[in-house]
Write a structure and sequence with these properties.
With 266 residues, the protein is of the alpha/beta class. 48% of the residues lie in helices and 16% in strands.
């Protein structure tokens, strides 16, 4: 009999780490995936000690085209049934589109898009066989926003993730499988520093900056309930509503205070 696990990519820090903590607290056995073995080992030991639940890890860089298959084969060889797949890994490109090398764009699209498709495709058949499974896609409020002059591909790839998640629900809900697109707004993690966009984050009003643990709690709750879309916190639920109903021509005016840099010319 296969052992049931949740698998989280980008699990060594930020929202991925906080999701791992919430799932461990709920008694899930975990497979953590990230690039840094030292950090993964530390996080795994902490989770085991604090939550008394089985935790293992696999070192992988999703920029590598072979990474999804290697992650899948690790789980198959261990006899793990991944009943909850959390596609969380991601980052942002800080430079203007014309200054970013094509190689960097391809790696970015692979981590945030192609690897998500690949991992989902690999783990989905076992979910179909088991007639159960949950998929969490960490998307962004940027999926609902108009195009911006910074991080040119970030919004489009998150819009793709939302539509991909929607398509999975349409195709597989009847088989007991749900996909939840989690769309957080500004979240306090090392994401912005690692992506070299901390300067923009520093200019965001404090009331719009949310704690990663709060985002993770709402993300896990929505996923376990099988919700199709989750926008954590009331602040960003209101913002997403406004993004849907207000003319996009108004957004540059408001963004100067609420989302600095999004419409500044590069």
């Amino acid at each position: 009999m296969k052992k049931e696990y949740a698998l989280i990519t980008g699990a060594s820090s930020g929202i991925g780490l906080e999701i791992s903590k919430v799932l461990a607290q709920k008694g899930f056995s975990l497979v953590l995936v990230s690039r840094r073995e030292d950090k993964l080992k530390e996080v795994s030991q902490d989770l085991i000690q604090n939550y008394k639940t089985p935790v293992t890890y696999f070192v992988s860089d999703l920029e590598d085209p072979a990474a999804p298959k290697a992650i899948f084969e690790f789980c198959i060889n261990k006899g793990y049934f991944i009943s909850l797949l959390v596609n969380n890994a991601g980052y942002a490109l800080p430079d203007a589109f014309h200054k970013t090398p094509m190689e960097a764009e391809e790696k970015f699209l692979r981590v945030l898009g192609i690897s998500v498709v690949a991992l989902t495709k690999l783990f989905l058949p076992d979910m179909i066989t088991a007639k159960e499974g949950k998929i969490m896609m960490i998307s962004s409020v940027a999926a609902f926003a108009p195009p911006s002059t910074i991080q040119t591909l970030y919004g489009p790839i998150k819009t793709f993730i939302n539509r991909f998640s929607e398509g999975l629900n349409l195709s597989y809900n009847a088989l007991g499988i749900t996909s939840t697109a989690v769309c957080p707004g500004y979240t306090v993690t090392n994401f912005h520093t690692a992506s070299r966009v901390q300067q923009e984050m520093d200019r965001v009003p404090s009331f719009m900056k949310k704690e990663a643990h709060r985002v993770a709690e709402e993300a896990v709750e929505a996923t376990l309930k099988g919700k199709k879309v989750s926008v954590p916190t009331k602040t960003f639920k209101i913002i997403v509503f406004l993004l849907k109903v207000l003319p996009h021509s108004l957004f540059p005016f408001f963004s100067k205070r609420l989302a600095p840099g999004r419409y500044e010319k590069k």
